[in-house]
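Please decode residue identities from the backbone states below.
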């Protein structure tokens, strides 16, 4: 049953690929989840937790744990906002630096993952992700 279980296969693939990125980011004391949040924050300059949760399809408690760690590390801070009900956050100078430092680690991890999966495997994953995301929104 485990060999045929789609959920089990996806979880196995996730653990292997995530492990590649985590190994490269470990010297920076940064997880792949935190790196993605930092990258999204940098791209949008300031974001709200609900936006990140929507983009990444994660629950608020998972994001909250990562945000708290990133605040403790001095990588993000609360951003000024007119609406105090949902406080946005932004990168600090330290957050911008750690994200810049993470780029080389990410590039090494990306190359390893692409080598492991092969170009066709990467293409299949991208197609599946787009399809699942699109289909999930219509369900």
């Amino acid at each position: 049953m485990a060999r045929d279980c789609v959920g089990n296969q996806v979880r196995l693939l996730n653990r292997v690929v995530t492990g590649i990125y985590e190994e490269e980011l470990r010297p920076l004391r940064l997880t792949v989840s935190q790196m993605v949040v930092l990258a999204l924050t940098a791209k949008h300059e300031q974001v709200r937790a609900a936006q990140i949760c929507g983009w990444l399809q994660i629950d608020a408690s998972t994001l909250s744990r990562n945000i708290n760690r990133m605040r403790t590390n001095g990588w993000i801070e609360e951003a000024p906002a007119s609406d105090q009900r949902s406080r946005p956050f932004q990168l600090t100078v330290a957050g911008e630096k750690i994200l810049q430092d993470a780029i080389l680690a990410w590039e090494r991890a990306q190359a390893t993952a692409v080598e492991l999966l092969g170009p066709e495997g990467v293409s299949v994953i991208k197609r599946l992700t787009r399809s699942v995301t699109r289909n999930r929104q219509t369900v």
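Observation: The longest strand covers residues 76-78.
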